[in-house]
Amino acid sequence: MEYHNPVLLKETVDGLDIKPDGVYVDVTFGGGGHSREILKRLGPNGRLYAFDQDEDALANALDDERFKLINENFRFIKRFLRFHNVKNVDGILADLGVSSHQFDVAERGFSTRFDAELDMRMSQKNDLSAYGVVNEYDEANLRRVFYDYGELKNAPAIARVILEAREHGDIRNTEQLKAVLSRFLPAHKSNKILAQIYQAIRIEVNQEMDVLKEFLEQSLEILKPGGRLSVISYHSLEDRLVKRYIKNGMFEGEPERDFFGNFSVPFKTIGKLIVPDDAEIRINNRARSAKLRIAEKV
Q1: 261 pLDDT higher than 90
Q2: Which residues lie across from 16 on neighbouring strands?
Q3: Nearest partner of 100 among 229, 290, 279, judged by Cα
Q4: Greatest mean pLDDT range, 14-18, 251-255, 256-260
Q5: Does the structure show a pLDDT above 80 at 156?
Q6: Can you give the pTM of this predicted structure?
Q7: What is the rounded CA–CA span in Å between residue 15 and residue 112?
Q8: Pairing of strands 23-26, 47-51
Q9: What is the rounded CA–CA span in Å between residue 7 and residue 192?
Q10: Per its UniProt record, what Pfam families does this chain match (predicted)?
């Protein structure tokens, strides 16, 4: 099973400031690249717990007594760490979004490159698939999905066209979906718009924004004071949530200030925003939109 190079490998793991005897969590195990690098830096008493909801990732489990792979969504990080008698950790790493492997397996339906059934589930245990969103959502919900998660200004028109097409039968695969939406895909920017449409459906199917919020809130509870959070995001919706939560412990609005105009923050930002250099992007095209933010619990 081929998994691509992990993005910003050194920078992300450096950001955790690993203690040899520490306890760490990689919530997006995938091919295990980040986990391998963490294990290299841990001593014999260190521990690493990894999460991945995708059953395919289980084939990559590492044979190391310091390592445990948990086949669950990382929105349940607190629950499953407690199950393993872990209440607090020294660092948490998250490489958000879809893995290169998921993009490259045609039948998973994540990529615009292949004709495949509408799926896009990161875990095959999920009831909702892309087929369900496209064929069963009403107009208002389709409009919400494309506007909120695809940031598409013509979301109302896209929703109407899908509903009209459904009157003639289900939309079952990616080629049918492209054909239905062809009027919104001018040749010079069809790939960009199609990527936004796919992103919107995928986020809805996997509840990615809700999952990210739940994860960030639990990370604050689980991390020890001085513990590090290292998060790579790939689009503005993810990055906005991560940035806001690190900055003031909230996803929206501003925290309450005291009489002097000060407010306490849960995290301290470590360094500046990190993005891949040209050399990494040449080797790994998936890295081109990556943004790494590192924070330390106060």
Answers
A1: no
A2: none
A3: 290
A4: 14-18
A5: yes
A6: 0.91
A7: 33
A8: parallel
A9: 22
A10: Methyltransf_5 (PF01795)
Dihedral sign (CA 98, 199, 251, 294) = positive
Could you read off the pLDDT of 215-234 as tens digits, one per residue?
Answer: 999 999 999 999 999 999 99
Judge whether 33 is annotated as a binding position. yes
Q: What is the CA radius of gyration of the chain?
A: 20
Beta strands in the chain, from DSSP E residues, in sequence order: 23-26, 47-51, 67-70, 89-95, 223-233, 267-269, 291-297
pLDDT at 100: 54
Helix (H) or strand (E) holding 94: strand 89-95
Helix (H, G, I), strand (E, B) or coil at 69: strand
pLDDT band for position 243 (50/70/90)?
very high
Q: For the chain, which domains are there?
A: 9-100+208-297 (3.40.50.150), 106-206 (1.10.150.170)
**Is 32 one of the annotated binding-site residues?**
yes
Which amino acid does the sequence have at 85?
A: N
74 carries a ligand binding annotation: yes
| Residue 239 marked ligand-binding | no
34 is in an annotated binding site: yes
Q: Quote the tokens at residue 111.
A: 């990529």
pLDDT tens figures, 42-62: 999 999 999 999 888 899 999
Tokens of 57: 């990732």
d(CA 267, CA 285): 31
